[in-house]
Design goal:
Length: 249
């Protein structure tokens, strides 16, 4: 008896896991380091991989998205769309097997061993301070380390913070790791990490928000959940650093 054909969603998820990519990593591979574009593509991939209660996949992506997914995963569009049903089937189908519910651990697959990641770690700063605004405390204390992504290999000042709470949902969820490049310029619409001076010497309130404007009078940021603007006096702003990537662990 022939096995039930794998749904295209299963092929997408299996190919992604065979490569050792998380959903945010795959999104970044497709669209680059733009945080807004990564967030959009990440949500698309999550929706594509969902299976209904009747085991029916969601509608396949149209336009260039299917080609982008296939190219990033090293498979053909024909295989991703139709599997073994087409003459364009990719050899990867013979090695993927069924849907594996256990994610492939990062940096252990044979495919990933061919990728040259820098070995220097990226520091993680900040500790959650609570509240609906997703505030965290930044005092220069390193709370952890994470593997430095290739895009930040040459940026000594780069660092990572962890999002606290759902104030920026759905773009940035609770627990997401935020990669920050202090050297890049920012503009309206970019996601940024800002440091706001507090009454404690050497301690700052940190926020990961969307940049709106910065004048001699005030800094204006946008929060997504609940939607509102946050305003800070300009003389309290210590720094504004651009977020260049997000990762969910």
């Amino acid at each position: 008896m022939n096995a039930t054909p794998m749904l295209w969603n299963h092929r997408l998820k299996s190919a992604r896991r065979a490569k050792g990519y998380s959903v945010p990593q795959l999104a970044r591979l497709i669209v680059g380091d733009d945080a807004d574009a990564i967030a959009v593509m990440r949500e698309r991939i999550y929706s594509y991989e969902k299976i209904s209660t009747k085991q029916k996949p969601v509608e396949q992506p149209r336009g260039q998205t299917m080609s982008q997914l296939a190219n990033a995963l090293g498979v053909t569009v024909q295989w991703l769309r139709d599997g073994d049903a087409t003459s364009g089937n990719h050899k990867v189908s013979a090695t993927l097997g069924g849907l594996d519910e256990n994610p492939v651990p990062a940096n252990v697959t044979s495919e990933q061993s061919e990728i040259k990641y820098p070995r220097s770690p990226l520091p993680i700063y900040g500790r959650a301070a609570g509240g609906r605004e997703g505030k965290f405390v930044l005092n220069g204390e390193k709370v952890g380390e994470i593997l430095r992504p290739p895009s930040l290999e040459a940026v000594a000042e780069a660092y990572c913070v962890e999002q606290s709470g759902d104030s920026m949902s759905p773009a940035i969820e609770d627990g997401y790791k935020l990669y920050v490049n202090p050297k890049l310029p920012y503009r309206r619409g970019h996601f940024v990490v800002v440091q706001i001076r507090t009454e404690v010497e050497g301690e700052f309130d940190g926020y990961a928000k969307k940049f709106v404007s910065f004048s001699k009078k005030e800094l204006v940021l946008e929060q997504l959940n609940p939607a509102r603007q946050m305003r800070f006096a300009a003389d309290l702003v210590e720094s504004i650093h651009r977020i260049v990537g997000v990762e969910f662990n």
